[in-house]
Automatic annotation (TrEMBL):
<keyword id="KW-0285">Flavoprotein</keyword>
<dbReference type="InterPro" id="IPR012825">
    <property type="entry name" value="BluB"/>
</dbReference>
<keyword id="KW-0288">FMN</keyword>
<dbReference type="InterPro" id="IPR000415">
    <property type="entry name" value="Nitroreductase-like"/>
</dbReference>
<feature type="domain" description="Nitroreductase">
    <location>
        <begin position="51"/>
        <end position="215"/>
    </location>
</feature>
<dbReference type="InterPro" id="IPR029479">
    <property type="entry name" value="Nitroreductase"/>
</dbReference>
<dbReference type="GO" id="GO:0032259">
    <property type="term" value="P:methylation"/>
</dbReference>
<dbReference type="InterPro" id="IPR050627">
    <property type="entry name" value="Nitroreductase/BluB"/>
</dbReference>
<keyword id="KW-0560">Oxidoreductase</keyword>
<dbReference type="GO" id="GO:0016491">
    <property type="term" value="F:oxidoreductase activity"/>
</dbReference>
<keyword id="KW-0489">Methyltransferase</keyword>
<dbReference type="Pfam" id="PF00881">
    <property type="entry name" value="Nitroreductase"/>
</dbReference>
<protein>
    <submittedName>
        <fullName>Uroporphyrinogen-III C-methyltransferase / cob(II)yrinic acid a,c-diamide reductase</fullName>
    </submittedName>
</protein>
<keyword id="KW-0808">Transferase</keyword>
<dbReference type="GO" id="GO:0008168">
    <property type="term" value="F:methyltransferase activity"/>
</dbReference>
Length: 251
């Protein structure tokens, strides 16, 4: 990555930490008749269409790039995610070294082979699936949870779970922002956390939770890839709802 890009990222981070972000207002705009917090029907429709069209992408166009300003918008969206107790446990590591990318790809491949063994009779079917785009994607990001900062507010009984949920919210924000920028994103979870943590020199207590492949794609899948490949079908919402208690289906 050229030095100008490194400088731009550093300046952006300094400005963001100082309370300024060029991609969103520092404070909510006052509510007026012409500008309010109420979304129009068209905006609502666009938002739900965005959610419905999000896909876990595995196929990327090799040799492409993501504009620096776009990448900063995506990371800003991720950093705008809610977090329990405002702990903001997420950390984003941008993989710029091609050799490091190759090492990460090797970790993913090692886990892919172990997963195939664990699947037993479906091993061959699994190995035919494309489950990542680590080498082809334009940008490779790793999301890690920072060491516990001692936040008690909202997470006294479930400290690690709430940190993980908060970081996952940041990933979802990034995912949706990527889709609205017409970029594909794939969440790779096939890796040994300790090995990846050592490779990225995470501090004690830090844990990688996601390898994110980001970049231009030829086309977005019309449905989740695992459904298209016949691996598994998504369940209808009605099967996953109940009233008052777990064993009382919603009617």
């Amino acid at each position: 990555m050229p030095w100008q890009a490194h400088l731009a990222i550093r300046r952006f981070a300094q400005a963001y930490n100082a309370g300024f972000c060029p991609y969103r207002p520092a404070m909510p705009a006052p509510l007026t008749e012409s500008h309010s917090a109420v979304f129009s029907p068209g905006e609502q429709e666009s938002f739900y269409r965005l959610i419905a069209s999000r896909r876990d992408m595995r196929h990327f166009i090799a040799g492409t790039s993501v504009d620096e300003a776009v990448l900063m918008r995506l990371l800003s969206a991720a950093h705008s995610a809610p977090s329990v107790g405002l702990m903001q446990p997420w950390r984003f590591i941008r993989v710029a070294d091609p050799a490091l990318r190759d090492e990460i790809a090797a970790l993913v491949e090692a886990e892919r082979q172990k997963t195939a063994v664990a699947l037993g009779e479906r091993d061959g079917e699994f190995l035919r699936l494309k489950v990542e785009g680590v080498r082809e994607c334009a940008e490779l990001l790793v999301v890690a949870m920072a060491p516990d900062d001692g936040t008690v507010f909202g997470r006294r009984t479930m400290p690690r779970e709430m940190a993980l949920c908060s970081a996952a919210c940041a990933i979802e924000n990034l995912w949706l922002a990527a889709r609205v920028e017409n970029l594909g994103l794939g969440w790779v979870s096939m890796f040994a956390p300790d090995a990846l943590a050592a490779l990225l020199r995470l501090p004690p207590g830090g844990q990688p939770i996601a390898i994110l492949c980001l970049g231009p794609v030829q086309a977005f899948y019309p449905a989740p890839m695992l459904e298209l490949e016949g691996w598994r079908q998504g369940r209808p919402l009605a099967d996953l709802m109940s009233t008052d208690t777990w064993d009382r289906p919603d009617t």
